[in-house]
Write a structure and sequence with these properties.
Layout (H helix, E strand, L loop, with lengths): L1 E6 L20 E5 L5 E4 L5 H10 L4 E5 L5 H4 L14 E5 L8 H6 L17 E5 L6 E3 L2 E7 L7 E7 L2 E6 L14 H8 L4 E5 L7 H4 L7 H11 L3 E5 L7 H14 L6 E4 L5 E3 L1
Parallel strand pairs: 3-4, 4-5, 5-6, 10-11, 11-12, 12-13
Antiparallel strand pairs: 1-2, 1-14, 2-3, 7-8, 8-9, 9-10
Helix pairs in contact: 4-6
Length: 277
């Protein structure tokens, strides 16, 4: 599988020279399977650029899944140009979380008085399917969801294809159990022996004195999870809006220091990054 990061920022998009290398767009990740299916995770502001690329490639058929529907993960949805074309087909898979249906949840992003274009103006053929409690198959890829520990609930995912595995656990607070969330050991078992773990790393230890229960992890807890699960590579994700390139470099350096002598590669995801598994 090929993984592309179109946005790794959390909470709110940012801009400025101090964010140039890691980027300012919020959460959006694309997966291309071995048999060329396209899977899109979340619709943060990074999905706008992804939509432009897909149209340039004349690609109109995708699966879209969501971790949850806080603003930074859905605010780009109305700006995904393929939505307004009749030849676009989207299999929209995900858990409705606190809404009665997934369609209602997504439609609320484009409801007045918050947005001028109505959900009914979408021309794409959108087909809804649940992934709350079951594993789904997309070509040769298996996707397994897990509840995350986050306010208002959500899901993380494990993607497996041809013996390779990618675990995506953003917005997951490892040291506080939110309603619907699981224990640390459950996340360790879910990530066990993954080739790549991408995990929320929003906070520094000193941040957490104020932000405990806000639904995000200290980066050192993400490193501990990666080491305990025996994963090969750890990608820090959901970068705080005030975390500059220089500060993220420092987090990566510390991650590598903690993992010294252990078979763990540590890095921070950046906008436009590609990872082949």
């Amino acid at each position: 599988m090929l993984i592309r990061c179109w946005g790794a920022r959390g909470s709110i998009p940012v801009s400025g020279r101090e964010y140039e290398r890691y980027g300012g767009d919020t959460c959006c990740v694309e997966i291309r399977t071995k048999d060329d299916h396209i899977v899109i995770i979340d619709a943060g502001t990074g999905i706008r650029r992804l939509g432009n690329r897909l149209l340039a490639e004349n690609r109109h058929d995708y699966t879209m899944i969501f971790t949850h529907t806080h603003w930074d993960h859905v605010m780009g949805f109305p700006f995904f140009k393929p939505l307004y074309l009749t030849d676009t087909r989207i299999d929209l898979a995900g858990c409705p979380f606190t809404r009665s249906s997934f369609r209602e949840m997504i439609a609320s992003v484009m409801s007045p008085p918050y947005f001028p274009v109505n959900f009914g103006d979408i021309e794409a053929d959108i087909r809804y399917q649940e992934t709350c409690q079951r594993t789904i198959q997309i070509g040769g890829m298996t996707i397994t969801p897990i509840p995350i520990s986050h306010p208002n609930q959500g899901r993380g995912y494990r993607f497996e294809e041809e013996g390779r595995s990618f675990v995506f656990l953003t917005d997951n607070e490892l040291t506080y159990r939110h309603p619907g969330g699981l224990q640390y050991e459950d996340y360790r078992a879910f990530a066990e022996k993954a080739d790549l773990l991408v995990h929320d790393a929003e906070y520094l230890p000193e941040d957490y004195l104020l932000t405990r229960t806000w639904g995000h992890s200290v980066y050192t807890d993400a490193v501990r999870l990666a080491l305990d699960a025996g994963v090969a590579r750890l990608g820090l994700f959901h970068h705080n809006q005030d975390r500059t390139d220089e500060a993220l470099d420092g987090m990566v350096d510390d991650c590598r220091r903690i993992a010294t002598g252990r078979p763990l590669e540590c890095f921070a995801l950046h906008q436009d990054m590609e990872i082949a598994l």
